[in-house]
Design brief:
The structure is a single chain. The protein is about 45% helix and about 15% strand. It is α/β, with parallel strands linked by helices. A hairpin with a 2-residue loop joins β7 (about 135-140) and β8 (about 145). It is globular, with a radius of gyration of 21 Å.
Length: about 325
């Protein structure tokens, strides 16, 4: 007879694969990106998708929202967007002959929020998302308004255009579970995109999971044990991204100004548990940690002047940190 945990693990894998397959009905290729987005969602984390326009970042998020029976919200970030346009504001309302201030919910009150071109908003507006991403609540006029659970921010940004954009501050980047690069499709994928979008029949995405499933998946993950040697390996990787650490590789010492935070270690641990379950294992291996390190660490590394000038890629630094952790 299956134990309760084994049953939950089987349900986790089945639900994950069902969502992934449903999203794949419309999105061509990008399997690794889709899988990593789903990993973050299962862990209750937020994702930053980076890529040039037209690669399907927004379509990926909206397709995921259709596959999950959750309330979807979208904000198109622009330089004139105000914080109240994100979280909501108090409005004067008349009720029973009396005037009173009533809180009007902003688009952030949803389960899946698409923050489109997030780097086009001013820092003041970007900061309006900080509390919602970390605390899962909104505070206006001293009153806290909790958000419905689950809640995820899936943000997009264009890496090649600088005019009219505001780079995300380090504190906000650190709140993203993963930062994922959306790459150009290959020839065969290009052809399939044209076939799916240029004909008379567009794939219909059906809701295959709901909020309760996602929350249950998150609880299942926390039951997976992590051996001390694997956890120590994870900690060594994160600490090796700090140039002041004695064991840090030479590349990190030379090209990194600030390394990754403990929040990065939490993300790697949670994501490693997902990869273990998807591989049919009830324990986390070092390979699981190594596989998610780049997505969890790259956006949390702050390069030095030399690193910026030399065009150093954070992924190369992460690979060096992994090698030095063995």
């Amino acid at each position: 007879m299956q134990s309760t945990f084994e049953s939950d693990a089987a349900r986790f894998t089945q639900t994950f694969q069902t969502i992934r397959d449903e999203v794949g009905k419309f999105i061509v290729g990008q399997q690794e990106v889709i899988e990593n987005v789903l990993i973050a969602v299962c862990c209750g984390g937020h994702v930053l998708l980076e890529g040039v326009p037209g690669l399907g970042k927004t379509a990926m998020v909206t397709t995921l929202a259709k596959a999950l029976d959750l309330k979807f919200g979208r904000i198109q970030f622009t330089p004139d967007l105000l914080p109240s346009d994100v979280v909501g504001t108090q409005v004067l309302s008349e009720r029973d002959g009396r005037r009173e201030l009533v809180f009007q919910h902003g688009p952030v009150f949803c389960n899946i929020l698409l923050a489109d071109e997030i780097n086009r908003a001013t820092p003041k507006t970007q900061s309006a998302l900080l509390e919602t991403m970390q605390e899962k609540r909104v505070t206006v006029a001293g009153v806290s308004h909790p958000l419905d659970q689950p809640f995820f921010v899936l943000a997009t940004q264009n890496p090649i255009e600088n005019d009219g954009t505001y780079p995300l501050p380090e504190a906000q980047l650190d709140r993203f579970f993963f930062k994922l690069q959306v790459e150009l499709p290959d020839h065969a994928e290009f052809a399939e995109i044209l076939n799916r979008t240029g004909g008379n029949h567009t794939p219909v995405i059906q809701p295959v999971a709901h909020g309760g499933d996602i929350l249950h998946m998150g609880r299942t993950l926390r039951e997976i044990p992590v051996a001390k040697e694997v956890q120590d390996h994870l900690i060594r990787i994160v600490r090796n991204t700090h140039p002041e650490n004695d064991k840090a590789p030479d590349k990190v010492r030379k090209f990194v100004r600030h390394g990754a935070s403990p929040r990065a270690a939490q993300a790697m641990l949670a994501a490693g548990r997902v990869r273990a379950l998807l591989d049919g294992r009830f324990h986390v291996a070092r390979e699981d940690v190594d596989a998610v390190a780049a997505a969890a660490l790259c956006h949390r590394l702050i390069l030095s002047f030399e690193g910026e000038a030399d065009g150093i890629k954070p992924a190369d630094l992460v690979r060096s940190a992994i090698r030095s952790a063995y």
